[in-house]
Specification:
With 354 residues, the protein is of the alpha+beta class. It contains 11 helices and 14 strands. The chain has 2 domains: 216 residues, Fructose-1,6-Bisphosphatase, Chain A, domain 1, CATH 3.30.540.10; 127 residues, D-Maltodextrin-Binding Protein, domain 2, CATH 3.40.190.80. 33% of the residues lie in helices and 21% in strands. The strands form 3 sheets. Strands 3-4-5-6-7-8-9 form a 7-stranded mixed β-sheet, sandwiched between helices. Strands 11-10-12-14-13 form a 5-stranded mixed β-sheet, sandwiched between helices. A two-stranded antiparallel sheet has the order 1-2. Helix 1 runs antiparallel to helix 2, helix 2 packs across helix 4 and helix 9 runs parallel beside helix 10. The radius of gyration is 19 Å and the shape is globular. Bound molecules: adenosine-3'-5'-diphosphate and magnesium ion (MG) (3 copies). It catalyses: 3'-phosphoadenylyl sulfate + H2O = adenosine 5'-phosphosulfate + phosphate; adenosine 3',5'-bisphosphate + H2O = AMP + phosphate; adenosine 2',5'-bisphosphate + H2O = AMP + phosphate. It holds the Pfam family Inositol_P.
Amino acid sequence: MTYEKELEVALLAVQRASILTKTVYSSHSKGTLSKSDSSPVTIGDFGAQALIIASIKHAFPEDEVVGEEDADDLRKNEDERKLVWDLVQAAKLDDSSAEDKIGGPIKSVDDMLTALDSGRSNGGRQGRIWALDPIDGTKGFLRGGQYAVCLALMVDGVPTVGVIGCPNLPIDDQAPLDSSIGADADDKEGKGVLFGAVKGEGATSRPLSKGALQQSKKISMKAVPDVRQATFCESVEAGHSSHGDNAAIASKLGITKSSVRMDSQAKYASIARGAGDIYLRLPVSKSYEEKIWDHAAGVVLVQEAGGEVTDAWGKPLDFGIGRTLKENKGVVAAPKDVFPQVIEVVKEVLGVKQ
Ligand SMILES: Nc1ncnc2c1ncn2[C@@H]1O[C@H](COP(=O)(O)O)[C@@H](OP(=O)(O)O)[C@H]1O
Ligand SMILES: [Mg+2]
Ligand SMILES: [Mg+2]
Ligand SMILES: [Mg+2]
């Protein structure tokens, strides 16, 4: 198998970071700050990014990382820094040989800040670059909905290894996907999934719980003989994806079931395991550039599970031009068989708006 070590390190790194995010998820105070674009960030986002970058730098010191967060806020805010440091020290894998593979605990506050700040790569088309979203769906994380810890390795601009931890998704790949999945989620018994995929090698899922890395099962998208029966997923946040355009597309396809709304790349994971079928993310604003860390891991997962992903105009997503997908607008993901049918309707709906 290719990229075996990369996949193992990414799975362990995401598993460890998820221990931290789960602690924050279940606590009342999440240390929420507002970023310059007025989006939220929490002690969970900072802690998870520091742990994951430390893991990558231990195993692959030469690799670059494009991470969503940085250490600016923590360098300025001593109380927040202390909260994150306590969390980072407490998050450990049970298995000490697994901990060793990702470098063991971070040794000092300075090392934590350095790790957190090592996600500033500008991306690009050459070499090995990891795309990291320590908490994707931060708004869902705060609301008590779905969120995901997402990590992908891009090789020469192509997403090649993808790992997604979803602490609030059901372990059962076949569990029906209904509207309750995105709201009032909790990470109690029967929840928590770790997805992994390597380009050309397929996709898998396993329980996220400690020590369960061996229980990996192959996943694949569901066949959709009749697109009218399809289940489609979209963001909870209407500001991230146009609910109106998504609904118009579904209706033109003859889909009568209402959409399943959930935050984060749990949408990519849910269609990859065949719980849902189609993911629509139609742009709301003309100027917004999708971030590579919001998609890289999900794209590998869906492609390896038998799906196709492009932007809303049917253009391949270009991960090699920087921190954003600036040459693309929106995202559409569906099983290969129905993809042409779906993208035609998406183009029709977008075309009318031009
Ligand atoms: N105007 C916009 N359009 C599309 N995506 C946006 C957006 N503003 C923020 N986002 C992104 O939407 C992501 C969440 O997606 P979703 O709605 O599918 O849960 C956020 O990730 P973070 O939560 O990691 O910041 C953020 O990067
Ligand atoms: Mg995100
Ligand atoms: Mg994030
Ligand atoms: Mg964010």
